[in-house]
Amino acid sequence: MLRNGKTVMHHAAAEELVILMEFFLSVESLPHPLLQIDLDGCTPLHSAASHSQAGTAHTIMRYAVKPPFSLNRSRPKWLDVKNKDGATVLFKAIESGSPEIVRLLSHSASFNAHETPTSSGATAMPLLPCAAQSDHFLVIRELLYCEDAASYVPRALSVAAGERHIASATELIDWAMRHGCDPDPNAEAVKISVDNNRLEVLSTLLSFRDNVQLEPFSLDVVAYTDFCREVDKVLETFWADFGGDICRVELFWGQ
């Protein structure tokens, strides 16, 4: 056993030492490697996902389809083991930005919301917004094909808008356009973009021309932009009249 209760399997998974891992997996007298837990509650598959090591994750998954882990179950329970922070292997793969591992897990892992332990209990956050929060747009692309992840597009888009994650926002909007969905039915992402001056995300949102919900809001934005331009023109004339003399301007406003 290594530091923090980690085994050689944890180390091999994190460093993508595939040959070493295959050797230990072949030794039947060793404890079941998929169930080895370190002091943080992580399995070797957690370690592979945390370090975006698709090679060792794939090796573990190939081993996992054999008895006693397969047991003809469509969703093996060991795959959804949570560490002490409440993170499953799938969440660690999303957090590290590994679309390859997310794809490997997509047919077997649970897509339940990630629960973060707090002093008052636990807060749950769907996995798609988790990916948007980290701006892992390739992971978002994989998640959109999984179970009911698509139903969380509006929430994920609002998260992306608040964090100014243009790549994630674009991925979500493009997916919605291809599938004829409204990515922002209540214009929450647009409001967040305006309130937080996320102009890059706002321009991406307003490019979704077929969204009826955005039309009134986009017209308001255009009107506001035109108003600002008119103000700029007035200020330019004002400064020209005073010759750019700040003292004369202060005297004028003091009258």
Automatic annotation (TrEMBL):
Query: Which keywords label this protein?
Result: ANK repeat, Repeat
Q: Which SUPFAM superfamilies match?
A: Ankyrin repeat (SSF48403)
Q: Which GO terms describe its cellular component?
A: cytoplasm
Full protein name: Uncharacterized protein
Species in which this protein is naturally found? Cudoniella acicularis
